[in-house]
Amino acid sequence: MDSSYVWASFMLALVKPKIFVNGQPVPDARWGQTHVPVGPGQYHVRVVTPWLFDMGPAEIQVPVGPGPGSKVYYRSPAAVFFQGAIGWEPQKTPGVIFLWLPFAVLGVFFLLTLLLILLG
């Protein structure tokens, strides 16, 4: 399991993701690589990010065959009201537009102010 968050949500470094396999919590779950030892079979994996409450839930069915296991990627959302993203390849951050929106608004205000100064 590889779990991550967007750099601007650096406060999430204070918590660890919660990983559940078939409803059972995985001990020592952390951001980055978390090895979950299981045998061959079908597993239900659920991941959430604890903050004020469990945010960014995401679930996936993971088939594990004999030999090397399966790799799953989880990405925490940029805002608390979004679902997390989970899949077989690295995931994009859900809700990232809400992360950049305040910077865009500030940029527009800055440009308008600059334009008023130059024309005034």
How many independent structural domains? 1
Distance from first to last alpha carbon: 57 Å
Sheet with the most strands, sense and barrel status: 4 strands, mixed
Uncertain stretches of 5 or more adjacent residues:
none
Biggest sheet: strand arrangement: 4-1-7-8
Number of helices: 1
Overall pLDDT level: 91
Order of helices and strands: EEEEEEEEH
Q: Please identify the oligomeric state.
A: single chain
Query: Helicity range of the residues?
Result: 10-25%
| Envelope shape | elongated
Task: Give the C-alpha Rg.
Answer: 19 Å
Number of strands: 8
Strand content: 25-35%
What features would you describe in this structure?
The protein is α+β, with helices and mostly antiparallel strands and 120 residues long. It has 1 helix and 8 strands, in the order ββββββββα. It has a 4-stranded mixed sheet, with no helix packed on it. Strands 3-2-5-6 form a 4-stranded antiparallel sheet, with no helix packed on it. β5 and β6 form a beta hairpin. The chain starts with a strand and ends with a helix. The model has no long low-confidence stretch (mean pLDDT 91).
Keywords for this structure?
120 residues, alpha+beta, four-stranded antiparallel sheet, 1 helix, elongated
Any chance you could write out the topology, listing elements then pairs?
Blueprint: E1 2-4, E2 18-21, E3 24-25, E4 32-33, E5 41-50, E6 54-64, E7 73-75, E8 85-87, H1 96-119
Parallel strand pairs: 1-7
Antiparallel strand pairs: 1-4, 2-3, 2-5, 5-6, 7-8
